[in-house]
Specification:
Blueprint lengths: L3 H4 L3 H8 L15 E3 L9 H13 L10 H20 L7 E4 L2 H17 L14 E5 L8 H10 L2 E5 L9 H7 L4 E7 L11 H10 L3 E5 L11 H4 L3 E5 L10 E5 L1 H6 L10 E4 L4 E3 L13 H17 L1 H20 L4 E4 L10 E6 L4 H10 L2 E6 L4 H7 L4 E5 L6 H12 L1 H4 L5
Parallel strand pairs: 1-13, 3-4, 3-5, 5-6, 6-7
Antiparallel strand pairs: 2-8, 7-8, 9-10, 11-12, 12-14, 13-14
Helix pairs in contact: 3-11, 4-11, 5-6, 12-15
Protein backbone atom coordinates (compact mmCIF):
# COMPACT_ATOMS: atom_id res chain seq x y z
CA UNK A 1 0.00 0.00 0.00
CA UNK A 2 1.20 3.51 -0.79
CA UNK A 3 1.94 5.43 2.39
CA UNK A 4 0.77 8.91 3.33
CA UNK A 5 4.39 9.97 3.79
CA UNK A 6 4.95 9.34 0.06
CA UNK A 7 1.78 10.66 -1.51
CA UNK A 8 -0.41 12.25 1.18
CA UNK A 9 -3.25 9.85 0.30
CA UNK A 10 -3.12 6.10 0.75
CA UNK A 11 -4.07 3.88 -2.14
CA UNK A 12 -7.08 2.76 -0.11
CA UNK A 13 -8.19 6.37 0.40
CA UNK A 14 -7.88 7.18 -3.30
CA UNK A 15 -10.02 4.17 -4.19
CA UNK A 16 -12.63 5.29 -1.64
CA UNK A 17 -12.71 8.73 -3.24
CA UNK A 18 -13.03 7.28 -6.74
CA UNK A 19 -16.26 5.56 -5.69
CA UNK A 20 -17.82 9.04 -5.28
CA UNK A 21 -17.29 9.86 -8.98
CA UNK A 22 -19.84 8.05 -11.19
CA UNK A 23 -18.08 8.91 -14.44
CA UNK A 24 -14.91 7.06 -13.45
CA UNK A 25 -16.81 3.79 -13.83
CA UNK A 26 -17.71 4.62 -17.42
CA UNK A 27 -15.94 3.20 -20.47
CA UNK A 28 -16.43 5.81 -23.22
CA UNK A 29 -13.81 4.16 -25.48
CA UNK A 30 -14.94 0.64 -24.59
CA UNK A 31 -12.11 0.15 -22.09
CA UNK A 32 -11.65 1.30 -18.47
CA UNK A 33 -11.29 5.07 -18.31
CA UNK A 34 -8.06 6.72 -17.20
CA UNK A 35 -8.96 10.37 -16.77
CA UNK A 36 -5.86 12.54 -16.99
CA UNK A 37 -7.48 15.80 -18.07
CA UNK A 38 -8.49 17.44 -14.79
CA UNK A 39 -6.32 20.41 -15.73
CA UNK A 40 -8.96 21.21 -18.34
CA UNK A 41 -12.11 20.06 -16.54
CA UNK A 42 -12.35 17.98 -13.40
CA UNK A 43 -15.07 15.44 -12.75
CA UNK A 44 -17.75 15.89 -10.08
CA UNK A 45 -18.48 13.67 -7.10
CA UNK A 46 -22.02 12.67 -6.21
CA UNK A 47 -22.00 15.10 -3.30
CA UNK A 48 -21.65 18.06 -5.66
CA UNK A 49 -24.19 16.75 -8.15
CA UNK A 50 -26.67 16.13 -5.34
CA UNK A 51 -26.16 19.57 -3.79
CA UNK A 52 -26.88 21.34 -7.05
CA UNK A 53 -29.89 19.11 -7.74
CA UNK A 54 -31.25 19.68 -4.23
CA UNK A 55 -31.08 23.44 -4.70
CA UNK A 56 -32.77 23.26 -8.10
CA UNK A 57 -35.60 21.09 -6.84
CA UNK A 58 -36.13 22.53 -3.35
CA UNK A 59 -34.74 26.08 -3.10
CA UNK A 60 -34.63 27.60 -6.58
CA UNK A 61 -35.54 31.29 -6.53
CA UNK A 62 -34.11 34.71 -7.27
CA UNK A 63 -31.66 35.85 -4.59
CA UNK A 64 -31.57 39.29 -2.95
CA UNK A 65 -34.87 40.15 -4.67
CA UNK A 66 -37.97 38.34 -3.48
CA UNK A 67 -39.69 38.87 -0.14
CA UNK A 68 -41.10 35.34 0.00
CA UNK A 69 -39.68 32.48 2.04
CA UNK A 70 -38.25 30.55 -0.91
CA UNK A 71 -36.28 33.60 -2.03
CA UNK A 72 -34.95 34.06 1.51
CA UNK A 73 -33.83 30.42 1.63
CA UNK A 74 -32.13 30.74 -1.75
CA UNK A 75 -30.38 33.92 -0.64
CA UNK A 76 -29.13 32.19 2.50
CA UNK A 77 -27.64 29.36 0.42
CA UNK A 78 -26.07 31.89 -1.94
CA UNK A 79 -24.35 33.89 0.78
CA UNK A 80 -23.33 30.81 2.79
CA UNK A 81 -21.60 29.60 -0.38
CA UNK A 82 -19.73 32.90 -0.65
CA UNK A 83 -18.59 32.54 2.98
CA UNK A 84 -17.39 28.98 2.41
CA UNK A 85 -15.41 29.81 -0.71
CA UNK A 86 -13.90 32.92 0.88
CA UNK A 87 -12.70 30.88 3.85
CA UNK A 88 -11.29 28.23 1.49
CA UNK A 89 -8.91 30.73 -0.14
CA UNK A 90 -8.15 32.87 2.91
CA UNK A 91 -10.31 35.84 1.93
CA UNK A 92 -13.17 37.89 3.34
CA UNK A 93 -16.65 37.25 1.91
CA UNK A 94 -16.78 40.87 0.73
CA UNK A 95 -13.73 40.16 -1.44
CA UNK A 96 -15.39 37.32 -3.38
CA UNK A 97 -17.60 37.98 -6.40
CA UNK A 98 -19.00 35.66 -9.02
CA UNK A 99 -18.07 35.40 -12.67
CA UNK A 100 -18.91 33.02 -15.51
CA UNK A 101 -15.44 31.46 -15.26
CA UNK A 102 -11.86 32.53 -14.59
CA UNK A 103 -11.56 34.05 -18.06
CA UNK A 104 -14.53 36.27 -17.32
CA UNK A 105 -13.06 37.19 -13.93
CA UNK A 106 -9.70 38.20 -15.43
CA UNK A 107 -11.47 40.21 -18.12
CA UNK A 108 -13.46 41.94 -15.38
CA UNK A 109 -10.27 43.16 -13.72
CA UNK A 110 -8.85 44.49 -16.99
CA UNK A 111 -12.14 46.08 -18.08
CA UNK A 112 -12.59 47.68 -14.67
CA UNK A 113 -9.09 49.13 -14.86
CA UNK A 114 -9.93 50.54 -18.29
CA UNK A 115 -13.11 52.08 -16.87
CA UNK A 116 -11.16 53.52 -13.93
CA UNK A 117 -8.67 55.00 -16.36
CA UNK A 118 -11.42 56.72 -18.36
CA UNK A 119 -12.98 58.04 -15.16
CA UNK A 120 -9.65 59.46 -13.96
CA UNK A 121 -10.00 57.70 -10.61
CA UNK A 122 -7.97 59.38 -7.87
CA UNK A 123 -6.06 56.26 -6.74
CA UNK A 124 -2.82 56.49 -8.79
CA UNK A 125 -2.46 52.69 -8.86
CA UNK A 126 -5.54 52.51 -11.07
CA UNK A 127 -4.32 55.01 -13.64
CA UNK A 128 -2.67 53.33 -16.60
CA UNK A 129 -1.23 55.70 -19.17
CA UNK A 130 1.10 55.81 -22.14
CA UNK A 131 4.58 54.93 -20.94
CA UNK A 132 3.29 52.62 -18.19
CA UNK A 133 3.95 48.90 -18.39
CA UNK A 134 1.90 45.74 -17.91
CA UNK A 135 4.00 42.65 -17.19
CA UNK A 136 3.04 39.04 -17.98
CA UNK A 137 5.04 35.92 -18.81
CA UNK A 138 5.47 34.15 -22.12
CA UNK A 139 3.84 31.08 -20.57
CA UNK A 140 0.45 32.65 -19.77
CA UNK A 141 -2.89 31.12 -20.69
CA UNK A 142 -4.66 33.29 -23.25
CA UNK A 143 -7.16 34.26 -20.55
CA UNK A 144 -4.34 36.00 -18.68
CA UNK A 145 -2.79 37.52 -21.80
CA UNK A 146 -5.49 38.83 -24.13
CA UNK A 147 -7.20 41.08 -21.55
CA UNK A 148 -3.84 42.75 -20.87
CA UNK A 149 -3.06 43.08 -24.57
CA UNK A 150 -6.34 44.92 -24.98
CA UNK A 151 -5.80 47.11 -21.91
CA UNK A 152 -2.37 48.07 -23.23
CA UNK A 153 -3.84 48.91 -26.63
CA UNK A 154 -6.60 51.03 -25.08
CA UNK A 155 -4.37 52.95 -22.67
CA UNK A 156 -1.15 53.27 -24.63
CA UNK A 157 0.73 51.24 -22.04
CA UNK A 158 3.45 48.81 -23.08
CA UNK A 159 2.88 45.09 -22.65
CA UNK A 160 6.09 43.40 -21.54
CA UNK A 161 6.72 39.75 -20.82
CA UNK A 162 9.18 37.51 -19.04
CA UNK A 163 10.64 35.13 -21.59
CA UNK A 164 10.84 31.37 -21.12
CA UNK A 165 13.78 29.13 -21.93
CA UNK A 166 13.89 26.10 -24.22
CA UNK A 167 12.00 24.06 -21.62
CA UNK A 168 9.22 26.64 -21.29
CA UNK A 169 10.46 27.81 -17.88
CA UNK A 170 10.88 31.39 -16.66
CA UNK A 171 12.85 32.39 -13.60
CA UNK A 172 12.13 34.52 -10.57
CA UNK A 173 15.25 36.56 -11.24
CA UNK A 174 14.08 37.43 -14.76
CA UNK A 175 10.61 38.38 -13.52
CA UNK A 176 11.91 40.53 -10.68
CA UNK A 177 14.31 42.29 -13.04
CA UNK A 178 11.41 43.10 -15.38
CA UNK A 179 9.45 44.96 -12.66
CA UNK A 180 10.34 48.67 -12.82
CA UNK A 181 8.94 51.99 -11.61
CA UNK A 182 6.84 51.99 -14.80
CA UNK A 183 5.10 48.69 -14.01
CA UNK A 184 1.42 49.13 -13.18
CA UNK A 185 0.16 45.52 -13.39
CA UNK A 186 1.89 42.16 -12.95
CA UNK A 187 -0.36 39.32 -14.17
CA UNK A 188 0.88 35.77 -13.71
CA UNK A 189 -0.35 32.19 -13.39
CA UNK A 190 0.22 30.71 -9.96
CA UNK A 191 0.77 27.34 -11.65
CA UNK A 192 1.35 26.97 -15.39
CA UNK A 193 -1.28 24.84 -17.10
CA UNK A 194 1.37 23.57 -19.56
CA UNK A 195 4.63 23.23 -17.66
CA UNK A 196 3.47 22.80 -14.07
CA UNK A 197 5.85 25.59 -13.01
CA UNK A 198 4.89 27.10 -9.63
CA UNK A 199 5.38 30.87 -9.61
CA UNK A 200 7.27 32.61 -6.76
CA UNK A 201 4.21 34.72 -5.98
CA UNK A 202 5.37 36.21 -2.69
CA UNK A 203 8.57 37.56 -4.28
CA UNK A 204 6.64 39.03 -7.19
CA UNK A 205 4.11 40.67 -4.87
CA UNK A 206 6.82 42.29 -2.77
CA UNK A 207 8.61 43.71 -5.80
CA UNK A 208 5.42 44.79 -7.56
CA UNK A 209 3.99 46.54 -4.52
CA UNK A 210 7.27 48.32 -3.92
CA UNK A 211 6.95 49.66 -7.48
CA UNK A 212 3.31 50.63 -6.87
CA UNK A 213 1.94 47.91 -9.17
CA UNK A 214 -1.04 45.60 -8.80
CA UNK A 215 -0.62 41.82 -8.87
CA UNK A 216 -3.30 39.75 -10.62
CA UNK A 217 -3.11 35.99 -10.08
CA UNK A 218 -4.49 33.30 -12.39
CA UNK A 219 -5.16 30.68 -9.73
CA UNK A 220 -6.97 28.13 -11.90
CA UNK A 221 -4.31 25.47 -11.50
CA UNK A 222 -3.49 26.17 -7.85
CA UNK A 223 -6.73 26.64 -5.89
CA UNK A 224 -8.08 23.18 -6.86
CA UNK A 225 -4.85 21.37 -6.06
CA UNK A 226 -3.01 22.93 -3.10
CA UNK A 227 -3.70 25.12 -0.07
CA UNK A 228 -3.98 28.76 -1.21
CA UNK A 229 -4.15 31.75 1.15
CA UNK A 230 -4.78 34.86 -0.93
CA UNK A 231 -4.26 37.19 2.01
CA UNK A 232 -1.02 35.42 2.81
CA UNK A 233 0.15 35.75 -0.79
CA UNK A 234 -0.77 39.42 -0.77
CA UNK A 235 -2.13 39.55 -4.33
CA UNK A 236 -4.56 42.30 -5.30
CA UNK A 237 -6.79 40.19 -7.53
CA UNK A 238 -7.18 36.50 -8.35
CA UNK A 239 -9.40 34.28 -10.46
CA UNK A 240 -10.30 30.59 -10.52
CA UNK A 241 -12.98 28.37 -12.05
CA UNK A 242 -15.48 25.96 -10.52
CA UNK A 243 -15.20 23.35 -13.26
CA UNK A 244 -11.53 22.72 -12.45
CA UNK A 245 -12.16 22.03 -8.75
CA UNK A 246 -14.91 19.36 -8.76
CA UNK A 247 -17.61 22.01 -9.23
CA UNK A 248 -20.12 22.81 -11.96
CA UNK A 249 -19.32 24.65 -15.15
CA UNK A 250 -20.45 28.21 -15.71
CA UNK A 251 -19.20 29.57 -12.41
CA UNK A 252 -15.95 31.38 -11.70
CA UNK A 253 -14.63 33.31 -8.72
CA UNK A 254 -13.12 36.79 -8.73
CA UNK A 255 -11.11 37.85 -5.69
CA UNK A 256 -10.50 41.55 -5.24
CA UNK A 257 -8.61 42.67 -2.16
CA UNK A 258 -10.78 44.96 -0.08
CA UNK A 259 -9.04 48.20 -1.07
CA UNK A 260 -9.08 47.37 -4.77
CA UNK A 261 -12.71 46.22 -4.74
CA UNK A 262 -13.74 49.48 -3.09
CA UNK A 263 -11.86 51.60 -5.66
CA UNK A 264 -12.59 49.81 -8.93
CA UNK A 265 -15.68 50.68 -10.98
CA UNK A 266 -17.65 47.69 -12.26
CA UNK A 267 -16.95 46.31 -15.73
CA UNK A 268 -20.63 45.53 -16.30
CA UNK A 269 -23.73 47.34 -15.16
CA UNK A 270 -27.38 46.40 -14.80
CA UNK A 271 -29.74 44.96 -12.25
CA UNK A 272 -28.85 43.85 -8.72
CA UNK A 273 -25.64 45.89 -8.37
CA UNK A 274 -27.12 49.35 -7.78
CA UNK A 275 -28.60 51.35 -4.92
CA UNK A 276 -30.33 54.14 -6.85
CA UNK A 277 -31.11 54.72 -10.52
CA UNK A 278 -32.72 57.73 -12.18
CA UNK A 279 -33.02 58.41 -15.90
CA UNK A 280 -29.68 60.22 -15.82
CA UNK A 281 -27.75 58.96 -12.80
CA UNK A 282 -26.96 55.85 -10.80
CA UNK A 283 -25.13 54.68 -7.68
CA UNK A 284 -23.49 51.29 -7.26
CA UNK A 285 -23.57 48.94 -4.30
CA UNK A 286 -20.25 48.27 -2.55
CA UNK A 287 -18.19 45.22 -3.41
CA UNK A 288 -18.84 42.40 -3.96
CA UNK A 289 -22.35 43.10 -5.26
CA UNK A 290 -21.14 45.94 -7.51
CA UNK A 291 -19.38 43.28 -9.62
CA UNK A 292 -22.45 41.02 -9.87
CA UNK A 293 -24.73 42.59 -12.45
CA UNK A 294 -27.76 40.51 -13.37
CA UNK A 295 -28.95 37.10 -12.25
CA UNK A 296 -26.17 34.84 -11.04
CA UNK A 297 -25.95 31.02 -11.54
CA UNK A 298 -27.08 30.28 -8.00
CA UNK A 299 -27.33 26.50 -8.28
CA UNK A 300 -23.79 26.35 -9.69
CA UNK A 301 -22.58 28.51 -6.81
CA UNK A 302 -24.21 26.13 -4.34
CA UNK A 303 -22.56 23.22 -6.18
CA UNK A 304 -19.18 24.95 -5.96
CA UNK A 305 -19.60 25.36 -2.21
CA UNK A 306 -20.27 21.62 -1.99
CA UNK A 307 -17.07 21.02 -3.99
CA UNK A 308 -15.14 23.12 -1.49
CA UNK A 309 -16.63 21.11 1.36
CA UNK A 310 -15.54 17.90 -0.39
CA UNK A 311 -11.99 19.14 -0.97
CA UNK A 312 -11.67 20.33 2.61
CA UNK A 313 -12.93 16.97 3.79
CA UNK A 314 -10.13 15.24 1.93
CA UNK A 315 -7.54 17.85 2.96
CA UNK A 316 -5.78 20.21 0.60
CA UNK A 317 -2.32 19.43 1.94
CA UNK A 318 -2.92 15.73 1.36
CA UNK A 319 -4.18 16.43 -2.16
CA UNK A 320 -1.11 18.54 -2.90
CA UNK A 321 1.29 15.88 -1.63
CA UNK A 322 -0.52 13.20 -3.63
CA UNK A 323 -0.33 15.18 -6.84
CA UNK A 324 3.26 16.31 -6.35
CA UNK A 325 4.27 12.65 -6.08
CA UNK A 326 2.30 11.79 -9.21
CA UNK A 327 3.77 14.77 -11.03
CA UNK A 328 7.28 13.57 -10.24
CA UNK A 329 6.33 10.07 -11.39
CA UNK A 330 5.10 11.57 -14.67
CA UNK A 331 8.22 13.71 -15.05
CA UNK A 332 10.62 10.83 -14.40
CA UNK A 333 8.66 8.46 -16.61
CA UNK A 334 8.25 10.73 -19.61
CA UNK A 335 11.85 11.98 -19.44
CA UNK A 336 13.07 8.38 -19.62
CA UNK A 337 11.23 7.52 -22.85
CA UNK A 338 13.35 7.72 -25.98
CA UNK A 339 12.10 10.39 -28.38
CA UNK A 340 9.81 12.02 -25.81
CA UNK A 341 10.65 15.54 -24.63
CA UNK A 342 9.35 16.72 -21.28
CA UNK A 343 8.29 20.37 -21.13
CA UNK A 344 8.79 22.43 -17.98
CA UNK A 345 10.82 21.78 -14.83
CA UNK A 346 13.16 18.77 -14.92
CA UNK A 347 12.58 15.66 -12.80
CA UNK A 348 13.49 16.44 -9.21
CA UNK A 349 12.56 20.11 -9.56
CA UNK A 350 9.40 21.56 -8.07
CA UNK A 351 6.35 21.12 -10.30
CA UNK A 352 2.61 20.57 -10.03
CA UNK A 353 0.92 17.24 -10.73
CA UNK A 354 0.94 17.47 -14.51
CA UNK A 355 3.33 16.89 -17.40
CA UNK A 356 3.28 18.03 -21.03
CA UNK A 357 5.40 16.28 -23.63
CA UNK A 358 6.50 16.51 -27.24
CA UNK A 359 6.82 13.20 -29.10
CA UNK A 360 9.41 13.39 -31.85
CA UNK A 361 7.94 12.77 -35.27
CA UNK A 362 4.34 12.43 -34.07
CA UNK A 363 1.74 15.19 -33.88
CA UNK A 364 0.15 15.62 -30.46
CA UNK A 365 -3.31 14.96 -31.91
CA UNK A 366 -2.16 11.55 -33.16
CA UNK A 367 -0.69 10.85 -29.73
CA UNK A 368 -4.01 11.73 -28.15
CA UNK A 369 -5.98 9.46 -30.47
CA UNK A 370 -3.73 6.52 -29.71
CA UNK A 371 -4.04 7.16 -25.97
CA UNK A 372 -7.81 7.43 -26.29
CA UNK A 373 -7.98 4.06 -28.03
CA UNK A 374 -6.67 2.45 -24.85
CA UNK A 375 -8.97 4.47 -22.58
CA UNK A 376 -6.61 7.28 -21.58
CA UNK A 377 -8.16 10.76 -21.68
CA UNK A 378 -5.31 13.26 -21.95
CA UNK A 379 -5.26 16.78 -23.34
CA UNK A 380 -3.67 17.62 -26.69
CA UNK A 381 -3.25 21.00 -28.36
CA UNK A 382 -1.72 24.33 -27.42
CA UNK A 383 -3.70 24.47 -24.15
CA UNK A 384 -4.63 28.10 -24.83
CA UNK A 385 -0.93 29.01 -24.63
CA UNK A 386 0.14 29.57 -28.21
CA UNK A 387 3.06 31.94 -27.45
CA UNK A 388 4.61 29.32 -25.17
CA UNK A 389 4.27 26.60 -27.80
CA UNK A 390 5.65 28.90 -30.47
CA UNK A 391 8.70 29.44 -28.28
CA UNK A 392 9.04 25.66 -27.90
CA UNK A 393 8.90 25.29 -31.67
CA UNK A 394 5.77 23.12 -31.80
CA UNK A 395 2.09 23.64 -32.50
CA UNK A 396 0.89 21.36 -29.73
CA UNK A 397 1.85 19.16 -26.80
CA UNK A 398 0.27 16.20 -25.03
CA UNK A 399 -0.60 16.86 -21.39
CA UNK A 400 -1.45 14.45 -18.59
CA UNK A 401 -2.87 16.15 -15.49
CA UNK A 402 -3.65 14.40 -12.22
CA UNK A 403 -6.05 15.00 -9.35
CA UNK A 404 -7.07 13.47 -6.04
CA UNK A 405 -8.61 10.39 -7.73
CA UNK A 406 -5.59 9.58 -9.93
CA UNK A 407 -3.71 6.41 -9.05
CA UNK A 408 -0.09 5.45 -9.63
CA UNK A 409 -1.36 2.61 -11.81
CA UNK A 410 -3.12 5.11 -14.07
CA UNK A 411 0.06 7.16 -14.43
CA UNK A 412 1.90 3.96 -15.32
CA UNK A 413 -0.72 3.07 -17.93
CA UNK A 414 -0.19 6.47 -19.51
CA UNK A 415 3.59 6.06 -19.51
CA UNK A 416 3.34 2.57 -20.96
CA UNK A 417 1.06 3.75 -23.77
CA UNK A 418 3.24 6.79 -24.43
CA UNK A 419 6.35 4.62 -24.74
CA UNK A 420 4.80 2.80 -27.70
CA UNK A 421 3.62 5.82 -29.67
CA UNK A 422 6.67 6.37 -31.87
CA UNK A 423 6.92 2.72 -32.82
CA UNK A 424 3.22 2.57 -33.66
CA UNK A 425 3.55 5.50 -36.07
CA UNK A 426 6.91 4.38 -37.40
CA UNK A 427 8.60 7.52 -36.11
CA UNK A 428 11.48 5.69 -34.44
CA UNK A 429 12.84 4.12 -37.61
Amino acid sequence: MTTTATTGLTEERVLQLRADFPILAEQPAGVPLVYLDSGATSQQPRQVLEAEWAFRTRRNAAVHRGAHTLAALATDDYEVARDRIARFVGARPTEISWAMNATDALNTVALSLAAANRAAVVDPRLRIREGDEILVTEAEHHANLLPWQRLADETGATLRWVEVDDDGVWTADAALAAITERTRVVAVAHVSNVTGLIAPVEQLVAAAHEAGALVVLDACQSVPHRPVDLHGLGVDAAAFSGHKMLGPGGIGVLYLAEALGAALPPARVGGSMITTVTMTEHEFLPAPQRFEAGTQPVSAIVGLAAAVDYLEGVGMSAIEAHEVALGERLALGTASIDGVRLVGPRPGEERAGLASVIVDGVHAHDVGQLLDAVGIAARVGHHCAQPLHRRLGVAATTRASTYLTTTEAEVDRFLDALSGVRAYFGAGR
